[in-house]
Design brief:
Shape: elongated
Number of helices: 10
Order of helices and strands: HEHEEHEHHEEEHEEEHEEHHEHEEEE
CATH class of the largest domain: Alpha Beta
Structural class: alpha+beta
CATH topology of the largest domain: Pseudouridine synthase
Length: about 325
């Protein structure tokens, strides 16, 4: 048998070429999504920039929308289930006067309501708007729009909508924590020359809320057609727009080997969860997906999610606490 000698520097060079400057990158990136592309397009672009196949996100934004898109890199893709349900914050502009078939500026105008709606929108008062908003805060039932990625019998609703089909959609309970107007130049409404009026708003809501539907429902309460003309997500959970980076800046950071400044560690990404430092023996059990017995009575509630760290503070897994047995069962193991 003949053996071939391979220079170790050659092997390293090949790995560097294939995977880029950070071959074993795990963590979270906050991208400032631009308008005009889908969230899937952003994922594909980040995948190319980082040369990393394992890329995901925690919640889509409509193509016309901008702002915070939480991107999961490497093994952090396993954390989507713990991050996708986070509270969201938005800045939006609602146009009163007519609706569209998509609920936003990309859709076709519902012409039958355009003339009367524009007349009505010009007569709206600040008091009417504030009163209508009051009834839209707290827990509400919201019917998902046809132009959405929700599925019906395996088909996405927007695929059916594009074929001219409309189906009955069950309402979903969402929570509107804040829904408030944002005055511009001292006025709530901006009157447009075509008879429409624009209202800037700020929304803080539970995951799964459609801001397009909120805009349409506000219009119905005011007796006028409405749709979104701008939407920007400014926060998803603890991730804020101030920490976001554009795709162009991400590419520059990667080329200059400055990616470390942008990556949020898996542990920091879940800072809202309680944590436990494990002994060496328990850390070994955790790496193998085995439950560990708590030595003392834990203060956690049954089913609570817990960060499981080794003695050095490295996140090994996310465990689920079982109150009855007093054990912590690794649900997602991140350790290599």
């Amino acid at each position: 048998m003949r053996f071939r000698c391979v220079n170790i520097l050659t092997v390293f060079s090949l790995r560097f070429t294939v995977y880029g400057t950070m071959p074993f990158m795990d963590g979270v990136l906050i991208i400032d999504k631009p308008a005009g592309i889908t969230s899937h397009d952003v994922v594909a672009r980040v995948r190319r920039i980082l040369r990393e196949r394992r890329i995901g996100h925690t919640g889509t934004l409509d193509p016309f929308a901008t702002g915070v898109l939480v991107i999961l890199v490497g093994r952090a893709t396993r954390l989507a289930q713990f991050l996708s349900g986070a509270e969201k914050e938005y800045e939006a502009v609602i146009r009163f006067g007519y609706g569209t078939d998509t609920g936003d500026l990309t859709g076709a105008i519902l012409e039958q309501e355009q003339h009367a709606g524009c007349v009505r929108s010009q007569g709206l008062s600040d008091e009417e708007i504030e009163e209508a908003l009051t009834g839209m805060r707290g827990e509400i039932d919201q019917v998902p729009p046809m132009y959405s990625a929700k599925k019906h019998q395996g088909r996405k609703l927007y695929e059916l909508a594009r074929r001219g089909e409309e189906i009955e959609r069950p309402a979903v309970r969402v929570i509107i924590h804040e829904f408030e107007t944002v005055a511009r130049d001292g006025r709530l409404l901006t009157r447009n020359e075509d008879g429409t009026s624009d209202l800037a708003v700020r929304v803080v809501s539970s995951a799964g809320t459609y801001i397009r539907t909120l805009a349409e429902d506000l219009g119905r309460r005011l007796g006028v057609g409405a749709h979104l003309i701008a939407l920007r997500r400014t926060r998803a959970g603890d991730f804020r727009i101030t920490a976001a980076v554009s795709l162009e800046d991400l590419e520059l950071k990667v080329s200059s080997d400055e990616m470390a400044d942008l990556i949020v560690s898996t542990d920091a990404a879940l800072s809202g969860l309680p944590f436990l430092h494990l002994t060496a023996a328990d850390a070994a059990r955790t790496r193998n997906g085995m439950q560990i017995k708590m030595e003392a009575e834990a203060a956690w509630v049954d089913g609570e999610k817990v960060r499981m760290r080794d003695a050095e503070g490295n996140l090994l897994a996310i465990g689920i606490f079982d109150k009855v047995s007093g054990t912590l069962q690794p649900k997602v193991v991140l350790a290599r």
